[in-house]
């Protein structure tokens, strides 16, 4: 239905004539927001450290910190004493005069308290726990890290300053680029009762990540020692020192480095930790060592400590003798460990694509045995298999899941829930939360332990990306797995909330009202939409892997992720980042109405003659022409007479041509009834009217149901909204008669209101007339007319 266009004015005239059947869209004024504009200055410009394509630049640098830690776990007094030597490598182009460290244990300190509590109030009825929460700072008075010494290499004291969870150490000499500095810190802290604190403190921000759990029935402890030693803050090209306080919510920014850690504790404790144990022959019994050797080639988990042995040990008197476990970990950003007399320990290998052996292991008490013995180590192996395929092959020698009734991740070791009932049965929730959290926390080895974003700044970059691959892993583990992330149905309720309850994903983790829905669920669902609906699996998976490859063991920022996905995916996604990551808009695409047309087979449009006249005015002499003429410019046509013809000095405004006339015979050529029947008789034209009620632009997926019961899916790319972000109509031509139309039938786009997605088709079609073509009246051109008038035309 393209009009025969020969001039602008004729075009609008024809449109006017044809309006009822022409593309309405062409007539609508554009309704532009900026949903399709490039992110531009919203992203930092590329530089030599971070390239515009999202990859690390030619001068990319990052700092490194190596740790040598000696510590003693005092299980009598529930205290951890430690001494560490930190070697800090200044690989930046800047000279440093001070260093910043993180003292996360001060999260619980009364004197160095940093808890930015959320607002609270007194209600007409208060529980004891509610009231305790109002006083939480007092309850934790004895906690926090005590820094005993900060010394240089020659034992000279270093000036330092502590502000809640951060400590500045002044360097005795400026640390030039390329230099390293070794210093020592001596400290201790009282270990918190992790479970009691959780019960006491309702505020999530105060949630303890590590501590002990006491089991009154058997009188044993389970220690999870995390965020325990003073750790270097990150100094980076994009923000200098990251000195945001740790409040318990947004996690950490950490450097890569090597660790040598010696842990001394009673010799009846079993230890699991980041890295590889260097002295198993010393700390394990000969039977345990033999089983450890067996586990290296096992195809099912091998129990290195059995349930019977663990049960027997937890009943024994506590030993007073001690043992020292020595662990080494290379190129990790942190070190955590666990210790208990309650542990069953099992292990089996995962072999990487490169043929490297990774020991998948689990540590758990009898309480978790029914679930963990069956699922934990295999869930660890499943995680490594799937994550390795969607990101990079797992680079570390081990991956450990510890049952500690919580969920928290560290390199090569993580803590997860999953206890059974006393009779050995368990609920489906206990089973699935165990498997999901194990996959999630082991998955954190990738995001952010290896692909090492700044968690304290951008929670979505680790929690969201990780929750997304967790979903892919669960989907691969069991097609019927009840996943909490990934599917768009997990996020629609959140995105439908009033705007005052929502923040964009590009919000600091501390400032979120609903941390989980925002950083975890919305990111995972968004990436799933990108993968399944916008980019397609092949394109998405390639780009996601490329992002992971580029930024493994480095510090990516959001721009590096956005750019890598676009660059390796070969697709402009700025509109998606802008909508899903920078706004609180939701998808709500409404199918407002449908018009069904068929061709009028009987009548043809009546032939009409249309004449248009246009006066030709003498053109205005614009500034460029005036100045060129005034200058000494030599005009080619004036220099070369050969180029001069009838039109060179033709001035229509001075001739009869000053009024130009064009005549069109509208609907000049038409079809016979038989021709029409053959061409158009069976065709149905459906004009669908859509509007954007939620703000987000999204592809439109349409499901057609036809009279004969068949269905068809049609996918309209998101660019349909480019010229009008609020509404569009589009015509679909179908050989079959449609009985119903539904949009987003697979719930791919997180549409928050599906009540406007369905539409039955009207019973009777409207009819429109067709014709073959218009025709222009042929006329003499000015040259022909001059000839006819007897004028001599230059040959
Ligand atoms: Zn997480």
Automatic annotation (TrEMBL):
Classification from the root reads: Bacteria, Pseudomonadati, Bacteroidota, Saprospiria, Saprospirales
PANTHER family the record matches: PROTEASE M1 ZINC METALLOPROTEASE, PUROMYCIN-SENSITIVE AMINOPEPTIDASE-RELATED
Q: Which GO cellular component does the record give, naming just one?
A: extracellular space
Reading the lineage from the top rank, the first entry is Bacteria
Question: Which GO biological-process labels does this protein carry?
Answer: peptide catabolic process
Leader sequence residues: 1-26
Q: Name one Pfam family in it.
A: Peptidase_M1
Q: Which GO terms describe its molecular function?
A: metalloaminopeptidase activity; peptide binding; zinc ion binding
Q: By its UniProt entry, which CDD domains does this protein fall under? A: M1_APN_like (cd09604)
Q: Per its record, how is this protein called by name?
A: Aminopeptidase
In its UniProt entry, the species of origin is given as Flavilitoribacter nigricans (strain ATCC 23147 / DSM 23189 / NBRC 102662 / NCIMB 1420 / SS-2) (Lewinella nigricans)
Record keywords: Aminopeptidase, Hydrolase, Protease, Signal
Start and end of every Peptidase M1 membrane alanine aminopeptidase domain? 380-580
| InterPro entries reported in the protein's UniProt record | Peptidase_M1_aminopeptidases (IPR050344), Peptidase_M1_dom (IPR014782), Peptidase_M4/M1_CTD_sf (IPR027268)
């Amino acid at each position: 239905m393209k009009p025969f266009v020969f001039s602008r004015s004729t075009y609008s005239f024809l449109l006017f004539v044809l309006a009822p059947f022409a593309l309405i869209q062409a007539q609508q004024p554009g309704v532009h927001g900026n949903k399709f504009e490039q992110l531009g200055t919203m992203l930092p410009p590329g530089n030599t450290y971070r390239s515009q394509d999202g990859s690390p630049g030619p001068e990319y640098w990052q700092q490194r910190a190596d740790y040598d830690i000696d510590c003693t776990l005092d299980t009598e007094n529930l205290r951890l004493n430690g001494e560490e030597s930190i070697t800090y490598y200044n690989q930046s182009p800047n000279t440093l005069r001070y260093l910043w460290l993180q003292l996360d244990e001060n999260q619980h300190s009364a004197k160095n308290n940093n808890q930015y509590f959320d607002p609270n109030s007194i209600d007409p009825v208060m529980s004891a726990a509610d009231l305790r929460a109002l006083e939480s700072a007092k309850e934790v008075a004895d906690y926090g890290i005590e820094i005993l010494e900060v010394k240089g290499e020659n034992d000279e004291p270093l000036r330092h300053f502590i502000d809640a969870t951060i400590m500045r150490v002044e360097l005795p000499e400026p640390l030039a680029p390329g230099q390293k500095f070794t210093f020592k810190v001596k400290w201790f802290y009282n270990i918190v009762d992790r479970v009691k604190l959780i019960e006491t403190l309702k505020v999530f921000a105060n949630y303890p990540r590590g501590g002990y759990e006491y089991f009154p029935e058997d009188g044993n402890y389970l220690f999870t020692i995390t965020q325990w030693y003073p750790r270097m803050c990150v100094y980076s090209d994009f923000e200098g020192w990251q000195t945001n306080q740790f409040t318990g919510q947004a996690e950490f920014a950490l450097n890569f480095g090597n660790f040598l850690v010696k842990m001394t504790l009673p010799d009846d404790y079993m230890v699991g930790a980041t890295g590889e144990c260097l002295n198993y022959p010393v700390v394990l019994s000969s039977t345990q060592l033999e089983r450890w050797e067996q586990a290296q080639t096992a195809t099912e988990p091998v129990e290195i400590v059995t349930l019977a042995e663990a049960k027997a040990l937890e009943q024994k008197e506590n030993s007073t003798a001690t043992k020292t476990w020595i662990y080494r970990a290379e190129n990790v950003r942190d070190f955590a460990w666990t210790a208990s007399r309650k542990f069953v320990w099992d292990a089996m290998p995962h072999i990487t694509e490169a043929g490297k052996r990774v020991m998948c292991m689990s540590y758990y008490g009898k309480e978790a045995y029914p679930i963990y013995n069956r699922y934990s180590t295999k869930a660890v192996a499943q995680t490594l298999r799937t994550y390795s395929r969607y990101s990079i092959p797992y680079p570390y020698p081990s991956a450990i899941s510890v049952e500690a009734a919580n969920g928290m991740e560290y390199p090569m070791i993580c803590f997860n829930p999953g206890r059974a009932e006393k009779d050995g049965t368990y609920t489906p929730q206990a089973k699935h939360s165990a498997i999901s959290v194990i996959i999630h926390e082991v998955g954190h080895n990738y995001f952010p332990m290896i692909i090492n974003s700044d968690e304290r700044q951008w929670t979505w970059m680790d929690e969201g990306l990780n929750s997304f691959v967790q979903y892919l892993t669960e989907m691969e583990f069991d097609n019927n797995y009840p996943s909490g992330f990934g599917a768009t149905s997990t996020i629609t309720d959140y995105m439908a909330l009033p705007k005052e309850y929502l923040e964009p994903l590009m919000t600091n983790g501390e400032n979120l009202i609903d941390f989980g829905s925002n950083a975890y669920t919305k990111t995972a669902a968004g990436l799933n939409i990108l993968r399944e609906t916008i980019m397609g699996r092949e394109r998405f998976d390639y780009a996601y892997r490329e992002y992971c490859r580029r930024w493994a063991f480095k510090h990516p920022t959001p721009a590096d992720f956005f750019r890598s996905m676009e660059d390796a995916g070969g697709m402009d996604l700025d509109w998606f980042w802008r909508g899903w990551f920078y706004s609180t808009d939701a998808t709500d695409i409404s199918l407002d109405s449908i018009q069904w047309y068929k061709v009028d087979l009987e009548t043809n449009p009546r032939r009409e003659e249309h004449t248009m006249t246009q006066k030709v005015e003498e053109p205005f002499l614009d500034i460029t022409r005036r100045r060129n003429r005034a200058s000494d410019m030599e005009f080619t046509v004036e220099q070369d007479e050969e180029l001069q013809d009838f039109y060179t000095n033709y001035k229509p405004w001075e001739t009869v041509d000053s009024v130009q006339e064009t005549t069109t015979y509208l609907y000049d050529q038409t079809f016979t009834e038989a021709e029409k029947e053959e061409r158009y008789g069976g065709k149905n034209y459906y004009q669908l009217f859509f509007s954007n009620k939620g703000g987000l632009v999204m592809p439109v997926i349409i499901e057609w149901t036809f009279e004969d019961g068949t269905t068809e899916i049609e996918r309209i790319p998101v660019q349909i909204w480019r010229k009008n972000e609020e509404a569009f109509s589009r015509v679909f031509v179908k050989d079959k008669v449609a009985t119903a139309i539904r949009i987003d039938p697979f719930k791919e786009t997180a549409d928050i209101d599906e009540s406007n997605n369905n539409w039955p088709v009207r019973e009777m079609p409207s009819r429109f007339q067709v014709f073959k073509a218009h025709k222009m009246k042929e006329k003499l051109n000015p040259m022909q007319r001059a000839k006819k008038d007897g004028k001599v035309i230059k040959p």
